[in-house]
Design brief:
By secondary structure, this protein is an all-alpha fold. The protein is 51% helix and 0% strand.
Length: 87
């Protein structure tokens, strides 16, 4: 999610996804056991992640809760079916 939020290139994202897959790390929400993520739940997750004092604010840009809530499903889709580097 972090790399998506930063706007990293597709090649960087694929490199990280390839490595995570090779070492057996989960790359989708389903692989974490999360299958239902309604928008309200995403907002509930994003709020404490962006609370004052959290390390997410070390980014060189303002990080708002809605940005985090939007980045979660976007990152999930990158690791999903059809990804060419998937094992």
């Amino acid at each position: 999610m972090h790399l998506v939020q930063e706007g990293q290139s597709r090649s960087v994202l694929e490199q990280v996804l390839r490595f995570a897959t090779e070492v057996g790390l989960p790359v989708t929400l389903a692989e974490f056991g999360l299958t239902e993520l309604p928008p309200e739940l995403l907002r509930q997750v994003a709020a404490p992640a962006t609370a004052e004092g959290e390390t997410i604010h070390n980014e060189p840009f303002e990080v708002r809760p809605e940005m985090v809530a939007d980045a979660i499903p976007a990152a999930d889709a990158l690791g999903g079916p059809g990804r060419s580097t998937r094992a």
